Amino acid sequence: MYRDFFGFSEKPFTITPNPHFIYLSGNHREAFAHLLYGIDSHAGFIAMTGEVGTGKTTVLRTLLTQLDPEKYCSALIFNPCLSGDQLLASICREFGVDADAHHSYGYLDALNHFLLEQHSAGKTVVLVVDEAQNLAPDVLEQVRMISNLETECDKLIQIILAGQPELDDVLQRRDLRQLSQRITIRCRLTPMNRRDTGDYIRHRLRVSGCRLPALFTSGAVKRIYRFSRGVPRLINILCEQALVLAWTQESSTVTSAIASRVIGVTQLRPKRMGVWQRLHGWLWSGR
Are 134 and 127 contacting, i.e. CB atoms less than 8 angstroms apart? Predict the structure, then answer.
């Protein structure tokens, strides 16, 4: 399709969380630094929140790829709709831990032995739970129990809870106050500003092999920013549609008019159904 037309080696604006395309805005760099500091300082619990589409999963996957396997042992749980025992089983499976007894005490005991072995080997164990706002309170309590696996002077496992802002509401529950008090580092991802939006678009174009210095005009970037409000996922969707439209028109640039047309179509679809807010949330929901 448009890849050959524009000379791309790969599509620049997919919505999958690909660390290869990672662009860290000022806010993203700050969040990334908080995560690294929390892990290396053995903070125990770290929480990262952000609205849908702001890049949480991409930041997490990039973080995990940058952890030296000689020094760190990491696991990612991205299906939090589990019972307490299922979550423990998933954690053990991700770390390659075999539990003799398939119940919470058996999983915790096996996990404790594993963590002690890793600690003796000088490794830091990192557990990332994505979409943590979907965890039931009793499952979050089970996560807190995992954090109790520690030595007299150090935490054996570093746990990152990542999720939408609703995670903060969940953690404010009175029955979860013990867990909330243990979260010593918190960070929040926010949408990008206009400058970062332009840099983000140009960055993804460069990574994809684009050699057209001004493929997206400043006017197109301005309109995309105004509609997306700096949310990376929305930017990706609009830019992808704009490239397709430019290709069909055999235009070597994405102009302000092309961006406006794409935005106009995007705005019209929900209006015809009369459920703009709900459909907007459904379209852009997820990680």
Answer: no
